[in-house]
Target: Ribonuclease P protein component
Amino acid sequence: MLPTENRLRRREDFAAAVRRGRRAGRPLLVVHLRSRPDPHAPGDSLPPARAGFVVSKAVGNAVVRNHVKRRLRHLMRDRLARLPAGSLVVVRALPGAGQAEHAELVRDLDAALRRLLGGTTPCGGPPGNTPRKPGGGGQ
Model:
């Protein structure tokens, strides 16, 4: 579960991340990142990074959609500390995410965040150290 202070809930925050943030698309998901801090934050303290998820009916029925959201929330919880303070992240699941393996979601999320953050992996390891699909042939 994502802590309350790290949840993106307001429509305006989702819109700000999607419309004014940078985007990285992968086969299973699209990640939007707005790293500029909120100008309305009081004082010098920046709020923590917050994440929200969009999983449409194209992904599957309600059970599948909720399962995908739970998996993505779990993955983002471990990666939020690597994001700049005050940033907004929206993870939009694409139709293939409902049938994807855990390792595939990890690979796509890490690759998208790595691209948005400029070359470092969100897990803290060196670039290119993300898990690959077995039998993938190297690339």
